[in-house]
Amino acid sequence: QSLASTSVLSSLSFFPELTCSRPHDRLLSYWEDSWRGESKKLGDTASYTCRSGYKRKDGVTRATCTRDGWEPNPLCQEIPPCGTPPPLEDGDTKTAMKEHYSHNETIEYMCQSYYIMEGEPYKTCLYGEWTGHMRCLRPCIVNEDEMRQHNITLKSSGTKYLVHDEIIEFRCTRGLPMGNVAMRQRCNSGVLVLPTCRE
Ligand SMILES: *[C@@H]1O[C@H](CO)[C@@H](O)[C@H](O)[C@H]1NC(C)=O
Ligand SMILES: *[C@@H]1O[C@H](CO)[C@@H](O)[C@H](O)[C@H]1NC(C)=O
């Protein structure tokens, strides 16, 4: 009993002598060298970075010399890859999709014809998650029957397909405009409000 506690005490007195030497870790891309090449003492810290594709443990910026060696252990961990990127409604990816994407990999999207993209066309795989947001805004199609019911027609002959934000102008086929819907309308993501005329 007394012998055991003596040996614990004597080993405790050695702890200040504990040092950590420069780690031989192939996943390190940078390691802060000790002053004059000396080993670091218990409680000392060292800044480091990990090779591409690997990262330090979440929230850790420096390694710490502990009784059990350098913490965190391991110093670097693999950055998780991303799976197949999410599909885009009314659009697609420019290149064929893969099953796995590595950290920092980017994929470009495009919209179907007549659809207008809102946002940047890229999604990026960051730490296992896809970031970046875009959507495809719908075109408007001018319907002859609907125009007839509203007693209107196109002011100038032109395409009946409008892309998002495109402006179109109507005129009355009978009577005068009524209500407060203007004769000039803007296509808003597939929605086009028709004015009405009446005698
Ligand atoms: C991600 O890519 C950017 C440039 O595209 C680069 O600056 C950065 O260091 C990369 N990050 C990682 C962890 O690979
Ligand atoms: C179109 O014009 C006719 C004749 O003035 C009218 O009876 C009808 O209500 C009009 N249509 C609409 C949708 O107002």
Automatic annotation (TrEMBL):
Disulfide bonds join 82-125. Pfam families: Sushi. It is found in: Virion. InterPro entries: ComplSys_Reg/VirEntry_Med (IPR051503), Sushi/SCR/CCP_sf (IPR035976), Sushi_SCR_CCP_dom (IPR000436). Residues 18-78, 80-138 form the Sushi domain. It comes from the Eukaryota. The keyword Signal applies. Its main location: virion. Keywords: Disulfide bond, Signal, Sushi. SMART domains: CCP. This is Sushi domain-containing protein. It comes from Oreochromis niloticus.
